[in-house]
C-alpha cells in the first residue's frame, strides 16, 4: 500500500503482548510512527512470567490476521494441528469429537513463542519503536497525552495522535475511558479457576502436552495437600496420572494458585478520534471457545479493513470500529460463556453427541446453508454476531425438522397400518405432503442465509 | 466511647466530600489516626466547582448518621422541609403528592453548605488531618500503601492500616480493587441527563428554588439555541418561565452541558482488612429516590455499628460490611432505577395516584403492617433490601385484595339480585364468607412482617 501522501501521525500502542505487537505491525504498514509501550521486559530476553495460559488455539480468524502481515506460514509451521476433542471416560475409554471436517484443524500455539515472533516482526519496521519495561501510569485521550514510567523511574509525558489500548483484561487505558460519560462497562468473574499441568515428552521425543484443569474455586480450596491432589486425580482422572507422573503432578499442582477467569464488556471501544481499545482490553472473554486471541487478532484485521475503506481517517474509523465490532465481540463473549456451561454440563451426554452428529450430517448435505456453530466460529470469518443468529436459526430448524420427521414417521406408520386394512379414501392424509412441498419452497433455506444480518433476522422472525 | 486500650491505627480516608468527611468523624471518634485526602481545594475557601447537583434531599437515614456524630440538629436547622411533590399540568393546574404523613418531610440541603459543616466538624478532632489539593495517584491495598500528589507535584508514598475509599462514582480506590480477582463490577449510564436552573428569590426574600430538568440526551441535543430553549419551555413548562425569567432561563440553560447519571454496582465493598469502599465509590445510584447521600451516610453508620459489635476488629468488620451492606445498597440501586422509570411514565397517571391513595389508606389502617415504599425508604431505617421485599409482598396483597373485593362486589350484587327473586336455598353462597374469615386468620398479616428477612421471604414464597 502506498501511503506516502498521508502525514505521518504518531500512534502509541499500549501493550506489547499478542494483540499489541500484531496491531503495531498493521499500523506500521500504514506508515504511521508507532511507539509500543510494554510494562514487562522483552519476552525474548527475560524468563517468561507465568500466570496466563501458556497454550493457545489459533484458528481461522487469527490466521487471516497473521496472513495480512505476512506471518501466517511462519507461525502455522510451528503450531501443532488439533483435529478433535478427546473425551476420556472414568473407565479409561476414549472418544473423539472432531472440531470440523477431516481437513479442518485448529493449531496449538505457544503464547511465548508467538509473542517473540510478533515482536521480531514489529521491530523490522523502521517506523516502529518498542519500549520495554515502560508502564502506563495514566492517559488523557482528549489531550493525546500519555504518562509512562520507564526504568529511570521518572514519569514521562508523551503526546500522540492516537492511543491504542492493547493492554489486556485489566487495561489501564480502559480505566481512563471508563471515566468518560456514557461508557457502560461490566466485568464478571466466573466461579471456575484453572491450573495448568504438563505431560512431559516420551521416548526422547520433543512432544509435551499442556493439560488444564478447570474447576470451581471452592473445589480447589479443598485440595490442600499433595495427597489430596493425588486422591482427587485417582478418583476423577486416573488415566492422566501415569502420563504426568505422580511426583510431578503433586508438585506442579501447587506451583501457582488457581487462575481466575474474567469476562469484560464495554459499550464503546473508542473515544473520539483519540483512543481505541482492542483485544482483551476491549472484550476479555472466558476461554471456552478458544477465541480470545483470535477475536483480538480479528479486531486488528477489522480495523485495518476500515482504515482501507475510509482512507486512514481516524475520525471515521474509530466510531465505525465500535459500531461494527461491538456486536461481534459481545456475541463471541456470549458464545464463550455458553460454551462454559455446555462444556461443563453436556460434553459427556449422548444427546450432545447426537446433536453434533446431526449437525455434521446436515453440513455435509447442505454445506453452505447449514454450518455447525464451531465451524462458523473457528473456520470462517462469518461475523460472530451473524454466526450467533445463524446458530439460533439452525437450532430452530433442527428442532422443527426432528419434530417434522417424528410426525412423518408417525403418519407413515399410520398410513401403512391403514394400507394393511380394507381400502378407504385417504384424502385427509394428503395435507402433510403438501406441507412438505411448501416447506421446501419457502425462504427457510435461502441460497446463502449469511449474506446479510437483515435477511437472517427476517428468516428468524419468520421461523 | 472509651477506646484508649486500642492501639492507634492509621486510616487514610480518600475523598473529603460528604461521605468522606462524615466517615472521618466516625473514625476519629474511635480514636484512630485519620488522614483525609481530598483532590479539590477546601470548599470553605475556594469557589464551589459546579457540576454535581447542588441540592440534596436529606431523609431519615442520613439524619440518623448525622445524629450519631452530633450534627443532626445543626444541619436540620439549615434545611428546608419538603412535604410533597408538586405536579404541574400543562394547563397550569397544580396537584400535590405527599411524601409521607402530615408530620413527615424530607429536607432540602445545599451540598456545599453540608460539606463545609462536615469538614469543620472533622477538623475539631485532634486526631484527624485533612489534606486538601491531594490527589490519589494509586493505592496498593495489600501493602497498605497509597501514593498521593500534593501541590508540590512530588508523588508521596504513605503507609496506613486501612484505606477508606469515599472518592465518589469515579473512585480511584475502586479501580485498584477492580484488579483483584473475583471483583465483579458494572457501571451503566442512563439515557437521561440533567440541567439545573434557578428560580430567584422574590420580594426581597432569601428563598430561591433549584429546578432540575431531566431529559434524554438526544432531546437535549435538539436544543441548540436560546430560542430553541424558550420554545421548548413555552411548550412544556409554560408556568416556569415567569418564575425563572426568560433571559435567565436562556442563559443558565447553557452554563453547563447536561450532566450524565451513572449507576455503579460492585460484588464486594472491601479487600481483606486493608481497604473498604463507601458511598458513591461503592454504589453510585441514579438520583430518582433522593437516596444517594442518605445511602452513603447510612454506610458510615452501619460500619460504625459493626465496629461497635466487633470491637474495632477490621478483619471481621470489613467482610461483614460487604456481607451486610451489599444486598441493601443493591436494593436501593434497583429501587432508584425503578423510580426513574416510574417517575418518567406514571407520575401523571390517575392509576398511579389511585395506588398512592390506597397505600396511604392501608398505612393509616395498619401502620405497622402496611408501609408505603417511600416511607420505608425515606422515613425509616428498615434495611433497603427488606423494604424491597416487603414492597413486593404489599403489592401482591393489594392486587389480591382488589381482586378479592372485586369478586366480593360481584357476589354481593348476585346475592342482592337473587334476594329480589323468589326465595330459594342459599347454602352455596355461604362459602365465600368462610373464606374471608380464613383469610384474616392466616399469617398473611403477621404482627411485624419486617422482623426478619427469613420471615418476609417465607411470607412471600407463601403468598
TrEMBL record, chains A, B:
UniProtKB keywords: FAD, Flavoprotein, Membrane, Monooxygenase, NADP, Oxidoreductase, Transmembrane, Transmembrane helix
Gene Ontology MF annotations: FAD binding; kynurenine 3-monooxygenase activity
Alphabetical list of InterPro entries matching this protein: FAD-bd, FAD/NAD-bd_sf
Gene Ontology CC terms, in alphabetical order: mitochondrial outer membrane
Pfam families named among the record's database cross-references: FAD_binding_3 (PF01494)
GO BP of this protein: kynurenine metabolic process
Transmembrane annotation, as ranges: 361-380, 401-418
Cofactor: FAD
Xref: PANTHER family: KYNURENINE 3-MONOOXYGENASE
Protein name (database record): LOW QUALITY PROTEIN: kynurenine 3-monooxygenase
Organism: Pteropus vampyrus (Large flying fox)
Encoding gene per record: KMO
Amino acid at each position: 500500500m502506498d501511503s506516502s501522501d498521508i502525514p505521518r501521525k504518531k500512534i502509541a500502542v499500549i501493550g506489547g503482548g499478542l494483540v499489541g505487537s500484531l496491531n503495531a505491525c498493521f499500523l506500521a504498514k500504514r506508515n504511521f510512527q508507532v511507539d509500543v509501550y510494554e510494562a514487562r521486559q522483552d519476552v525474548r530476553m527475560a524468563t517468561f512470567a507465568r500466570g496466563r495460559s501458556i497454550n493457545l488455539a489459533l484458528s481461522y480468524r487469527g490466521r487471516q490476521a497473521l496472513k495480512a502481515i505476512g506471518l501466517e506460514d511462519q507461525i502455522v509451521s510451528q503450531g501443532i494441528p488439533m483435529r478433535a476433542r478427546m473425551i476420556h471416560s472414568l473407565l479409561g475409554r476414549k472418544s473423539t469429537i472432531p472440531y470440523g471436517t477431516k481437513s479442518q484443524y485448529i493449531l496449538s500455539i505457544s503464547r511465548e513463542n508467538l509473542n517473540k515472533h510478533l515482536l521480531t516482526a514489529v521491530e523490522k519496521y523502521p517506523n516502529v519503536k518498542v519500549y520495554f519495561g515502560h508502564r502506563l501510569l495514566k492517559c488523557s485521550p482528549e489531550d493525546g497525552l500519555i504518562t509512562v514510567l520507564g526504568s529511570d523511574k521518572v514519569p514521562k509525558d508523551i503526546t500522540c495522535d492516537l492511543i491504542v489500548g492493547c493492554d489486556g483484561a485489566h487495561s489501564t487505558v480502559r480505566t481512563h475511558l471508563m471515566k468518560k460519560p456514557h461508557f457502560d462497562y461490566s466485568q464478571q468473574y466466573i466461579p471456575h479457576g484453572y491450573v495448568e499441568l504438563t505431560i512431559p515428552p516420551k521416548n526422547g521425543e520433543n512432544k509435551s502436552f499442556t493439560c488444564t484443569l478447570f474447576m470451581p474455586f471452592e473445589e480447589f480450596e479443598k485440595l490442600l495437600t499433595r495427597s489430596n491432589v493425588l486422591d482427587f486425580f485417582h478418583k476423577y482422572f486416573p488415566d492422566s496420572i501415569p502420563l504426568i507422573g505422580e511426583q510431578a503432578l503433586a508438585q506442579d499442582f501447587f506451583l501457582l494458585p488457581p487462575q481466575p477467569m474474567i469476562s469484560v464488556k464495554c459499550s464503546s471501544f473508542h473515544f473520539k478520534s483519540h483512543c481505541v481499545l482492542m483485544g482483551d482490553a476491549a472484550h476479555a472473554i472466558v476461554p471456552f471457545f478458544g477465541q480470545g486471541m483470535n477475536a483480538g487478532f480479528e479486531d486488528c484485521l477489522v480495523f485495518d479493513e476500515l482504515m482501507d475503506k475510509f482512507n486512514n481517517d481516524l475520525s471515521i474509523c474509530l466510531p465505525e470500529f465500535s459500531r461494527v465490532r461491538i456486536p461481534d465481540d459481545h456475541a463471541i463473549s456470549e458464545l464463550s460463556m455458553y460454551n462454559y456451561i455446555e462444556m461443563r454440563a453436556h460434553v459427556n451426554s449422548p444427546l450432545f453427541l447426537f446433536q453434533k452428529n446431526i449437525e455434521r450430517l446436515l453440513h455435509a448435505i447442505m454445506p453452505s446453508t447449514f454450518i455447525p456453530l464451531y465451524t462458523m466460529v473457528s473456520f470462517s470469518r462469518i461475523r460472530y454476531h451473524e454466526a450467533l443468529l445463524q446458530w439460533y436459526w439452525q437450532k430452530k430448524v433442527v428442532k422443527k425438522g426432528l419434530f417434522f420427521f417424528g410426525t412423518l414417521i408417525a403418519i407413515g406408520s399410520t398410513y401403512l397400518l391403514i394400507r394393511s386394512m380394507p381400502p378407504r379414501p385417504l384424502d385427509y392424509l394428503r395435507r402433510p405432503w403438501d406441507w412438505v412441498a411448501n416447506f421446501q419452497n419457502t425462504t427457510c433455506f435461502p441460497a446463502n442465509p449469511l449474506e446479510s444480518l437483515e435477511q437472517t433476522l427476517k428468516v428468524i422472525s419468520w421461523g
